[in-house]
């Protein structure tokens, strides 16, 4: 699966499930991603103002944030997603 597709899938999950809160480890398991790739994707979504990271480390969708095209992280290999 392409990185862009994974970013769209992650955004879709947060839109479809309002109130979703995931730690990086939970996100990694949910989407079947390697740790480094998952961290990079979550960071990209925070930088794009789609997600925010809470004090306890969970990632949540920002109020009113809409899915958007996010620049892929520096690592541009394809990644398998469960």
How would you explain this protein's 3D organization?
With 82 residues, the chain is mostly helical. The chain has one domain (3-61): Orthogonal Bundle (Arc Repressor Mutant, subunit A), CATH 1.10.10.10. It is built from 3 helices and 3 strands. It has a 3-stranded antiparallel sheet. Helix 2 (24-31) crosses helix 3 (35-47). The N and C termini lie close together (10 Å). The relative contact order is 0.27. Residues 76-80 have low confidence and may be disordered.
Q: What is the top-level CATH class?
A: Mainly Alpha
Number of helices: 3
In CATH terms, the superfamily is: Winged helix-like DNA-binding domain superfamily/Winged helix DNA-binding domain
Helix and strand string, N-terminal first? HEHHEE
Assembly form of the protein: single chain
Count of individual domains:
1
Quickly give the CATH architecture: Orthogonal Bundle
In spatial order, strands of the major sheet run: 1-3-2
Summarize the main sheet.
Answer: 3 strands, antiparallel
- Low-confidence spans: 76-80
Rg, nearest Å: 11 Å
Percent of residues in β-strands: 5-15%
């Amino acid at each position: 699966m392409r990185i862009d597709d994974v970013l769209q899938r992650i955004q879709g999950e947060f839109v479809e499930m309002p109130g979703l809160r995931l730690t990086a480890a939970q996100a990694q398991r949910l989407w079947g991603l390697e740790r480094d790739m998952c961290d990079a994707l979550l960071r990209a979504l925070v930088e794009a103002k789609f997600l925010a990271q809470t004090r306890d480390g969970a990632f949540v969708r920002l109020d009113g944030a809409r899915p958007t095209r996010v620049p892929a992280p520096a690592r541009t290999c394809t990644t398998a997603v469960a």
